[in-house]
Amino acid sequence: MSKKALITGITGMDGSHLADFLLKKGYKVYGMIRRSSNINLDNLENIKENITFVNGDMTDQNSLFRCLKDTNPDEIYNLASQSFVGESWNTPEQTSNVTALGVLRILESIREFNPKIKFYQASSSEMFGRMVENPANEKTPFYPRSPYGVSKLYGHWITINYRESYNLFACSGILFNHESERRGIEFVTRKITDGVARIHLGLNKNISLGNIDARRDWGYAPDYVEAMWKILQNDKPTDYVIATGKDYSVKDFLKIAFEVVGISDWNKHVLIDQKFYRPAEVDVLRGDYSKANKELGWEPKTSLEEMIKKMVKSDIKKIKSKL
Ligand code: NAP
Ligand code: G4F
Hints:
Elements: E1 4-8, H1 13-24, E2 28-33, E3 51-55, H2 61-71, E4 75-78, H3 92-113, E5 118-124, H4 147-166, E6 170-175, E7 178-179, H5 188-200, E8 207-209, E9 215-216, E10 219-220, H6 221-233, E11 240-242, E12 248-249, H7 250-260, E13 270-272, H8 290-296, H9 304-322
Parallel strand pairs: 1-2, 1-4, 2-3, 4-5, 5-6, 6-11, 7-10, 8-13
Antiparallel strand pairs: 9-12
Helix pairs in contact: 1-6, 2-3, 3-4, 5-7, 5-9, 7-9
This protein binds NADP nicotinamide-adenine-dinucleotide phosphate and ligand G4F.
């Protein structure tokens, strides 16, 4: 019989890539979606017929319990979150409710309904924040720098606590930044590839950005969802850093993205706007994925250049189709 997986955050970037991956593995996939005046299933366009949707919200304990009862999954991938760091200063309470307490609510539902369900928590490199060790590994102390990072840290520790308290198969993947053609438009990578596509097509002249000296360890989301799955197939529940081990600046990203459309003087098209600066910045993130490599046989497959090329080309295609 095929395994059953419940994905929270299925409409997002990772949720949709994970659904693609699990369907190919033969899983029965359930996706939790929340009530909204305009549910957006764009990322699931090609697979939505193969997914069973259930209604729930990370801020509503009973709805989560019902999702578990109605689906009785073998595995839960908790990807739902208010995931935009910048927004977390505007809505710190809502961010904490979804991103921190939401994890507790699912763990409580698992404990009550079926403690045998395996649980994956989407932890984040934002927990390392002002990195006290570079590259960061699973033993590096945390130093979050945003309401989002603090909320993720709660989700991370409550997952460990429920594993240790109730013997749950509950694990975190501490994923460093990962991107794809489905990345939300507010994140810097997609904002750049969309902007480059518009400049290339003669629709815009510039891209307005904040701190372009920030450095990130950027991987490709389809490679990273494989790591999520591998973490739950392991024989022991534990946590893993998932990263590429290389960091680049936003400036490096701009240079590569503009080169895809043959523009070498990228700085002529970039404006710096203070409104995109953050009250507290994470200057650099870089991860050491050697534990995942050794124990899970996982490694990143897609280079930064390959990924940026895919994203720029996809944005050109998307924009052209709407002209
Ligand atoms: P994303 O594209 O922003 O997707 C977030 C998902 O969460 C969406 O499906 C959204 O649903 C759902 N959601 C938000 N609030 C909810 C609520 N109250 N109840 C139920 N669902 C809710 O994020 P992503 O980039 O795919 O990231 C997936 C997870 O990994 C997130 O937890 C993120 O924090 C974490 N993470 C991401 C990265 C990265 O670089 N991408 C790195 C480390 C960790 P709607 O469509 O209804 O808004
Ligand atoms: O693309 P970002 O918004 O991603 P950030 O803050 O690193 O967070 C992402 O990765 C985390 C993992 O480390 C996830 F947990 C989280 O959910 C999310 O997926 O910003 C990247 C960097 C920042 O330093 C930001 O200050 O780019 C800088 N930046 C410069 N100009 C900008 C902009 N970021 C955005 N979003 N927009 C700008 O105009």
